[in-house]
């Protein structure tokens, strides 16, 4: 089964400002880089999704420092970068066409934020026919919310996703 690793919104904004620091952000980057390295070794397509705001005043406007992919990610020239403007990485982007053109059948998800762009993209993928997807624990994250802390948000979403929208793998991060 042909796979693609999709990394959602791992951008500098989550590392440049303490109020936006992702939960366990250093470990998160190490775990995602482990997936990226394995994907490159196994010729699995790596796709970075990059949130891009249309408002020039926004921190995530194209070209601003906070908009850039995190500097410590192992981005290769063969990786695909797709910009999005909404929480759904498929909405008005080339992602679905790219997956179909490259005959990708299974998606491996990672990134941020758990309850926003990652959740929306995981559910959209399932609705679009990608129903055998994977997510490794500790390869996605978010911020503390008003009601739940980041750890509870992560655990809640993994419980909802697992065996419904994808399979959550607990254990060694190995493709």
Automatic annotation (TrEMBL):
GO terms for molecular function: hydrolase activity. It holds the Pfam family Isochorismatase. The keyword Mitochondrion does not apply. Gene3D superfamilies: Isochorismatase-like. Keywords: Hydrolase. The keyword Hydrolase applies. Residues 4-131 form the Isochorismatase-like domain. Belongs to the isochorismatase family. This is Isochorismatase family protein. It comes from Neobacillus massiliamazoniensis. The lineage of its organism: Bacteria, Bacillati, Bacillota, Bacilli, Bacillales.
């Amino acid at each position: 089964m042909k796979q693609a690793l999709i990394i959602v919104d791992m951008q500098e904004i989550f590392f440049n400002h303490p109020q936006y620091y992702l939960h366990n952000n250093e470990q998160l980057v190490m775990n995602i880089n482990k997936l990226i390295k394995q994907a490159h070794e196994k010729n699995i397509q790596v796709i970075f999704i990059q949130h891009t705001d249309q408002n020039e005043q926004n921190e995530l406007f194209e070209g601003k420092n906070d908009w850039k992919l995190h500097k410590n990610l192992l981005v290769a020239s063969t990786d695909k970068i797709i910009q999005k403007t909404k929480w759904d990485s498929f909405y008005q982007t080339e992602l679905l066409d790219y997956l179909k053109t490259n005959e990708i059948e299974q998606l491996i998800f990672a990134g941020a934020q758990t309850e926003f762009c990652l959740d929306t993209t995981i559910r959209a993928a399932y609705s679009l026919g990608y129903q055998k997807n994977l997510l490794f624990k500790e390869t996605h994250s978010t911020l503390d919310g008003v009601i739940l802390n980041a750890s509870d948000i992560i655990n809640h979403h993994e419980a909802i996703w697992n065996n419904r929208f994808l399979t959550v793998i607990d254990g060694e991060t190995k493709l």
